[in-house]
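Changelog-adjacent note: as of this version, every example in the card shows the full chain rather than a window. The one below runs 171 residues end to end.
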Amino acid sequence: MPRLPMGDMGAAEVIFGYGESGALALTPHLGRIALKDTMSSKDIQEEGFGENAVDAVATGRLVEVAIPMTRSTLEQLELILHGTLQSTVLKVTAFVGCQMYEDSRALLIKPICDNVPSVDPAEWVLVYHAYPLPAIDLGYARDEQRIFLVNFKVFVSQESGHVGQIYQIGV
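Full-length structure tokens:
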């Protein structure tokens, strides 16, 4: 019976900066790591058919990755929050007006089985260019674990050999 190369369910390890020196695992996580791929289109209409589409044109696809990080290290948060780590103090600034593609990095998702990340590249998902956009909402409650939700904006690759590509299943 056919099945997905990465399995049908389970946790994952995420490596930000895969293939580069300074790559960083963004684990552990608590909750769902999500790769969302939504294709968009614009309808072609004719007056005689009202609001009904007679055709459509593909206008692109929005790909995002969300990682609910927990029990994070200051080094992980420095990278994700665009902060500056000084000893045990992480300072976060406004971070405005900066272009993102040039600082985007490869993001690799590996399924985990028995708390061990997969070593089979056929099971991995590689996103070519991703940039972290934190969406932090830290809760302070006796029964709520703190989560650093990080959404990654994904860009179409402009690099030779991958121009126009976004991600691949199997590495």
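Structural remarks: The longest helix spans residues 74-81.
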